[in-house]
Amino acid sequence: MKVKRGRTATLKIVRKCEGDRVLFFKSSNRRIATVNHNGKITARKRGTTTITLKMKSGCTATCRIKVY
Questions:
Q1: What is the DSSP secondary structure assignment for residue 16, as one 8-state letter?
Q2: Are 54 and 60 in contact (CB under 8 A)?
Q3: Where are the domains of the chain?
Q4: Which of 11, 37, 41, 54 is deepest in the core (most CB within 10 A)?
Q5: What is this structure's pTM?
């Protein structure tokens, strides 16, 4: 996913088990982009980071973010 510096984007979860819920979102490099508990990404500085999502069921997913 590409996001322009200073802009925001929101990650949408398209599949999850009934009753499952998001435990957290985490950015591997908060200087590049941050992510809140709702999956809203704020692009801060040019570069690349990975956003990780963890579900209560133990499932995880990642999304690579390129800030330009």
A1: -
A2: yes
A3: 2-67
A4: 41
A5: 0.85
